[in-house]
Design a protein that fits this description.
The chain is an alpha+beta fold. It has one domain: Aminopeptidase, CATH 3.40.630. The protein has two helices and five strands; from the N terminus they run E-E-E-E-H-E-H. It has a five-stranded mixed β-sheet with strand order 1-2-3-4-5.
């Protein structure tokens, strides 16, 4: 994937998404109030798989949550594994 990826934030539908060649990959969340986001789904269509889009969407969403002071509940198994991997990497770096 040689093109630069632009991740969009749809506040109304509570999604971060990227559209490429007519296909849309997204990460969906719920704002539970009290500065808590429940990230419950990532979806990457077959045509866009293997390009690291789920990781990019997850990183973007987690950065957004961190900047806004939100706690994240990773209901999506992909996001949960991603967060665990990042925690292990941080622990190794310390």
């Amino acid at each position: 994937m040689n093109q630069e990826i632009t991740i969009h934030h749809d506040l109304e539908d509570k999604q971060f998404y990227v559209s490429i060649d007519g296909s849309r990959a997204y990460l969906a969340y719920m704002d539970l109030g009290r500065k808590t986001l429940d990230i419950y789904r990532t979806y990457v269509p077959n045509a866009l798989r293997g390009k690291g889009l789920a990781a990019k969407l997850t990183a973007h969403a987690l950065q957004f949550a961190n900047e806004k002071g939100y706690e994240v509940i990773p209901s999506c198994s992909y996001v949960e594994r991603y967060m665990q991997r990042q925690e292990k990497l941080r622990a190794r770096a310390d």
